[in-house]
Write a structure and sequence with these properties.
295 residues, alpha/beta, six-stranded mixed β-sheet, four-stranded antiparallel β-sheet, 11 helices, 14 strands, 28% strand, globular, binds adenosine-5'-diphosphate
């Protein structure tokens, strides 16, 4: 399976939402990371065929998806960003309804719905109304509907938006569980949504691909530019404006433990001020900040 996005551009009037984006995806989980307004949703709308590009094409297994719309829709599962699902439906009824919309043969609907409910761990509450579901449960219902028909491609737009940390972890685990032999693309601005499960990360900023590679490759690129130090509030105030702060924690003794991005000159400056500073290996959050944070 091979999904190719070739030279996609999208303009909304004078706004260029995407500018010549090309990507090649085979089986595995991909994280499409970028801040709000980067163009993630627009790209997803184009890949799912809900919006037309201004130029460029999408190919699946070397066929232009525009020319094979029906077949493409069959292999595509989409988990939308909005949680606008039918509050008065039970989880089971809702999924049966979607199964019919997806033209799943009548005799298979019941077993398919049972299967996807099992995958997302909602079998026990299948007859409860969606209106009473928590945000995380609703999101699992949305994932379940995308799994109906066993699609080869699954696209998720901000799958953990509005969820608490515990629910986020659950959703992440479900995604990695369903990932086998599928192309999964997750658009998010939350690094931890994809950090541990994506084989490849695509950093999208202002409508262009800024960086792409395995999480390790991207972290390696920043090696030598991430430091940790312990300092007091006064010292921190002095350096705050000249570095990017990736993490800041107050310690029991009142001092601050800071993780900062900078180069050799930052290190020298710290040493001059007699603040001990230690080089650490970058993580994906550091890479995200180095790419998108403004000093
Ligand atoms: P993201 O999903 O990364 O937050 P979007 O794809 O929603 O980014 O938006 C990319 C850019 O395109 C933004 O500048 C946004 O304001 C603009 N945009 C998105 N949708 C529309 C639209 N329907 N009409 C006009 N501008 C839009």
């Amino acid at each position: 399976m091979l999904l190719e996005i070739k030279n996609i551009s999208k303009k909304y009037g004078k706004i260029t939402a995407l500018n010549d984006v090309s990507l090649t995806l085979d089986a595995g989980v991909y994280g499409l990371l970028g801040p709000n307004g980067a163009g993630k949703s627009t790209l997803i709308q184009i890949i799912t065929g809900n919006t037309a590009s201004t130029s460029g094409q999408v190919f699946y297994n070397e066929k232009n998806v525009k020319d094979h719309e029906k077949a493409y829709k069959k292999v595509l599962g989409y988990v939308p960003q909005s949680q606008g699902i039918y509050d008065n439906f039970s989880a089971k009824k809702f999924l049966e309804y979607i199964a019919v919309l997806k033209a799943i043969p009548k005799r298979e609907v019941s077993s398919e719905v049972h299967h996807v409910l099992e995958v997302v761990g909602l079998l026990e509450v299948q007859n409860r109304k969606l209106g009473g579901f928590s945000g995380g449960m609703r999101q699992r219902v949305l994932i379940a509907q995308a799994l109906l028909g066993n699609p080869e491609i699954i696209i998720l737009d901000e799958p953990t938006a509005g969820l608490d940390p515990k629910e986020r972890i659950k959703i992440r685990n479900f995604i990695s569980r369903i990932a086998e032999n599928k192309i999964i693309l997750i658009a998010t601005h939350v690094v931890s949504d994809v950090e541990s499960i994506a084989k490849k990360i695509i950093l999208l900023g202002s409508g262009t691909v800024c960086l792409e590679g395995t999480p390790n490759m991207l972290c390696e690129l920043l090696n030598g530019k991430v430091f940790e130090c312990i300092l007091d509030a006064n010292q921190f105030e002095k350096i705050e404006s000249s570095v990017i702060v990736s993490n800041l924690q107050e310690m029991p003794n009142g001092k601050l433990q800071a993780r900062i991005l900078g180069d050799e000159s930052v290190k020298r400056e710290f040493e001059q001020q007699k603040i001990p500073i230690q080089l650490v290996f970058p993580n994906l959050q550091d890479v995200y900040l180095a790419t998108f944070a403004k000093k």
